[in-house]
Amino acid sequence: MAVDIVMPQMGESIFEGTITKWLKKPGDKVERDEPLFEISTDKVDAEIPSPSAGVLKEIKVGEGQTVPIQTVVGVIDAAGSAAGSSAPAPAKTAAPAPAPMKAPAAAAPAPAISRPAVPAPTAAPLAASSASSSSSSERIHSSPLVRRMAKEHGIDLSAIEGTGAGGRISKQDIEAVIAAGGAPAAAPPAYSAPAPAGISRPATPPPPAAVPGAAGAQVHVVLENAVPREKMYFGNYEVHPMSTMRQRIAEHMVASKRVSAHVYSVDEIDMTKVAALRAKSKDEFEKRYETKLTFMPFFVKAAVAGLRAYPTLNASLDGTNVILHKEINVGIAVALDWGLLVPVVKNADEKNILGIQRNMNDLAERARSKKLKPEEVQESTFSITNPGVFGGLFGLPVISQPNVGILGLGAIEKRPVVINDSIAIRSMCYVTLSYDHRVVDGAIAHQFLHKVKETLENWNEPVL
Questions:
Q1: 252 is catalytic
Q2: pTM over 0.70
Q3: How open is the CA angle 194-199-200, to the nearest 5 degrees?
Q4: How many percent of the chain have pLDDT more than 70?
Q5: What is the domain class of 2-84 according to CATH?
Q6: Superfamily designation of domain 262-457
Q7: 165-189: per-residue pLDDT in tens?
Q8: How far is 409 from 396, CA to CA, in rounded Å?
Q9: What is the signed CA dihedral for 144, 128, 38, 121, rounded to 10 degrees?
Q10: Does residue 441 have an active-site annotation?
Q11: How far is CA 209 from CA 115, 172, 251, 259, in A?
């Protein structure tokens, strides 16, 4: 019996996914719930388990391709006969059109929000020799749906370089061209520097992605170049396409800087009391609770105290409406080898040091092993990032939308400090608050920082 492998819906707001790696090849035996392939979405990267035991019979969607949810990406022979397995279809064979995508039903009417447009296709690293030996029809790898869309919009598929495996032109590629205004020009690139063998450069800049702005306005996100392309390609170099996650991070950061009026306030905190408490308690804490005690839960608790006192920072801005959140959900930035995620400690105000530490450790571990659920990186009301863990004195972090504030933590270092006309050695730390001046004024920002400082310098909560 054949069992379809489908692109799963990883969250209500996620409508497509990119296959980044197949962990099995056709003919391999698989067990039910065994990791089968890896995907990347707007929210998370994840390993997808096999829906059935058997033999992987066919891979329909290759690595690097982006398809809508519920698209069949492969087939498992549940009977387990390796002899019946087949290799992936040749690149020139058109893949079946993805099933129509249905958006989840809404419980109540909600304001319309534009999803970011799909980035324009960039050329895949194809060898020129193989392409030149093929006929025109063989070079244009696309599905019937893509060819129909191209015909309806008068688009020449031969002028598009696809982003799919083997240079296949995907639905996302054709939609990006349509969004850009029609068929791409066949004119030569604007730069003159020769590309390295086997690598093609994008012929056109990506189309702008619309993101919500104030009062219903749309702010267009374009990952444009700061200098002409011909000034980038010189000497010896390699070209690495951005991963799906890296593209989403770039889009989010550019959108945040363009939408929010970023202002920064800096303060210095004496962490001596907290450092002494942690040093005294960490061994017993780890022995008793089987988890290490870090400084981060202390900062989370201090931020919670500040957000309770100044709820304007625990907010989001929808046009001209300020949404004051009743829950305090703190996003904690986690650096990964392949990018950055901000998993969320939900209801942080209801947790003690142990609860926050366990929650953080669990989220960070699953972020690094690609086991996070989409809802675990959503609904943050405030964020914290910690460049200090890498030795940074302080930073000026970009606000994580839709928050209006983010707290940046510097390294905790021993420094000489004047106390009552005497010099003492204290454990000091710089903290930076980035806030959206559309919602938060400087007076509130500095009072918030003072509350964080006061909470940490006068810490009185036990950890054991």
A1: no
A2: no
A3: 75
A4: 73
A5: mainly beta
A6: Chloramphenicol acetyltransferase-like domain (3.30.559.10)
A7: 456 677 667 777 877 766 443 433 4
A8: 10
A9: -60
A10: yes
A11: 8, 13, 8, 13
Burial class (CB in 10 A: 0-12, 13-18, 19+), 371: middle
Domain boundaries, the chain: 2-84, 141-186, 197-259, 262-457
Spatial CA neighbour of 285 closest among 356, 237, 227? 356
Which pLDDT tens digit goes with each residue over 188-230? 343 334 444 444 444 444 444 444 443 334 444 556 787 888 8
Which of 318, 437, 446, 450 is catalytic? The answer is 437
The radius of gyration of the chain's CA atoms, rounded to the nearest angstrom, is 26
Catalytic one of 252, 441, 446, 450: 441
Q: What is the DSSP string of 215-283?
A: GG-EEEE----SS-GGGT--SS----PPPHHHHHHHHHHHHHHHHS-EEEEEEEEE-HHHHHHHHHHHH
The answer to whether 140 and 169 have CB atoms below 8 angstroms apart is: yes
Which residue did the predictor score with more confidence, 422 or 150?
Answer: 422
The CATH code belonging to domain 141-186 is 4.10.320.10
Question: Is residue 126 a contact partner of residue 165, using CB atoms and an 8 Å limit?
Answer: no
Query: What is the bridge-based pairing of β-strands 66-68 and 218-221?
Result: unpaired
Measured between alpha carbons, how far is 403 from 262 in angstroms, rounded to an integer? Answer: 12
Sign of CA dihedral 396, 401, 404, 409: negative
Backbone angles phi, psi at 143, to 5 degrees: -90, 165
In the block, residue with structure tokens 């979405």:
41
| Tokens (6 digits) for 108 | 């109540």
